[in-house]
Every structure is written in C-alpha cells, then in structure tokens.
Amino acid sequence: MDVIGVLTAGGDCPGLNAVVRATVVRAIERHDAEVVGILNGWEGLMEGRTRPLDRDDVRGILARGGTILGTSRLDPYVHGDGFESVRKTLESNDMDALVVIGGDGTLRTAMQLYEDGGLPVVGVPKTIDNDIDATDVTFGFDTAVQIATEAIDRIATTAEAHNRVMLVEVMGRTKGWIAAYSGIAAGADAIIIPEVDYDLDTIAKIIRKRHRRGHTYSVVVIAEGVEPPAGLEVEERIDQFGFKRLGGVAYTVGHEIERLTGFETRVTVLGHLQRGGTPSATDRVLATRFGVKAADLAAEGTFGTMVALRGTEMVAVPIADACATIRGVPDQIYDVAETFFG
Ligand code: F6P
Hints:
Blueprint: E1 3-8, H1 16-31, E2 34-38, H2 42-47, E3 50-53, H3 76-79, H4 83-92, E4 97-102, H5 104-117, E5 121-125, H6 141-162, E6 165-170, H7 177-186, E7 190-192, H8 200-212, E8 218-223, E9 237-238, E10 244-245, H9 249-261, E11 265-269, H10 281-300, E12 305-310, E13 313-318, H11 319-323, H12 331-339
Parallel strand pairs: 1-2, 1-4, 4-5, 5-12, 6-8, 6-11, 7-8
Antiparallel strand pairs: 2-3, 9-10, 12-13
Helix pairs in contact: 1-10, 6-7, 7-12, 8-9
Bound molecules: 6-O-phosphono-beta-D-fructofuranose.
C-alpha cells in the first residue's frame, strides 16, 4: 500500500483544509493509500513530526480557514541540512510520495529537494496573491478578492458620507492581483499596483477632476508591494525568518495625496482579514479539484510536477515551470481597470 505524505507551508490561505481533505479522501478511496500529515510545514518534515490522517480526521474541515496541519516559513535549505533530515522522515514513515501545498517559495524548495535528492513531490499552488506561474489561478485568491471587494464597498459609503478620499491597502506581496481585481469589482477611482509605474500628481489630478464633477469623495486601492513615492521612505521590517514584512506603504502615499489634493485622506490596511476564515465556494471547488488531482499524481508516481488549472482542465505541469517567474497582472487587466478611473 502506498503512503502519501501531505504538508502545508508558508503563509496560510483559505482552502488549505479543502486541499488536505480532498487529497486524503481521494488517496484512501481511489488509491487504497495511507496518508500521513506533516505538522508545521517543512519544520515537521525536518523534525519527523507527523500524524496519520484518515477520513475521520478530515471530516468537517472543508469550510474551515487556516490549516489543520499547521504551517511555518522554515526551510530545509535555510534552517536545516537540506535533503538529509527530510530523507530520514520520508524513510521512517515509508513515504512513497509527498504532496506539498505552498506558494512560490515553498514550491521552489520542493523543486530543489526533487532535483537534489529525488523528493517524490507533487506540488499544489497556494496563495491569495495569485502570483504563481503555469496555472491560471491559485486557490485563496477568489476569497481574498471577495473580502477586499466587500471592504471597499463599505469604505465607499462612509467616504461619500464624509467627502473623504479613502485609500485601501490590500495584500499581494510583489504583485497587484488582489488590488486590480478588487479595485475593478468595487469600481475604484484609481488602483496603484507594483506592475505599473505610478505618479502621485496624476492620481491627485484624477481625484480633483472627480471632485470638480461633483463627486466629492474618492476610493483608491493600493497594493502593499508598491514602492513608496520617490524620495520618501517606509521603514523596512523583517520577520523572524528573514522575509521582508510588507504593509503600511498606504500611510505614506495617503499623506502625499492629502498634501497634493487638499482633501482629507484616510487609510485602511486590510491585512490578514484577507487570509483568514472560510474559503469562497469557488475556492472550495478549486482546492478540492487540486487535492484530487494531487492524490492521483502522487499515487501514479508523477513526481516533480504541480497541479494546475488551465482553462477548465486540471493538469500536471513541471514544478520548474511554476517557479520560473512570479506572475504579475497583465497589461490587459490594468487597461480595463484604468478605463474607469476618476
Ligand atoms: O503571500 C501571502 C501573503 O498573505 C502576502 O500577501 C503577505 O504579504 C504575506 O503573506 C504576509 O505574510 P505574514 O503573515 O507572514 O506577515
């Protein structure tokens, strides 16, 4: 009987539990396999911390946020001895395959372990940021966009009541997918994303023009990964694993917008609200399809691959394809957004 391991690593994301559930149920029901859960991402794989997962263990978790396995940002190459301790855990659990659910960093580590030591890995693309290449979309993104859109809708009504400019900062790391989609969905008056150079004078002009036309409030969406305006600095913060901590650039930009327009400008940073809680129905279905496909690939031994959505098809792509670039918002999407500015 095959033994399939499953781990979740990196930042959490709505739909992680849905993938775990689908992997477990498919592996047991269709492939007569056993499943072992690895606790706390790569950390558990390095330290041999695992637990068996059967159908009862994954009952009732489809709609639950977070991850029942726990997650961390520890990496075997940065915080451990590369493949060595990973190999020990694989051997002591008789693991034939490992389903790794993670974002670009996690998938890059999985690829390296596959290339260095032959880790029998199948990747699943996870991130609210939607920036993983080789798949049309990642799970978690739809939920984050929905939450951000609802928040912007609410902010717009209070903006109107008080004649204010509201600047809403959303997540996305170095890419502006959440900003572009939630901004389009909520009818934002301007959207600032890292993929497109911005100029605060132009943003101020858009806002002033709106006000001249009688709309005495504006809503601007900004991605957290946008560089601060030239000449102004935002304090650099690093997390415990050495990653840059984003969040807060909107305060600097908002201050400048207020200075340039003379209109009262308020800032809301949505932060982890976008990542917590239950996944949307679309993400539950996508995560379930990803988990089912990952179990199939793991059972048939198609390693070094990642599950991906292409059009309406669930396919396997080389993990290397997914790690080649960090996917940004295409010009075509920004062009649609820009049509409605002002
Ligand atoms: O990559 C997902 C993400 O939510 C980013 O959008 C955000 O910048 C980052 O994780 C936040 O990570 P943490 O919770 O570790 O601060």
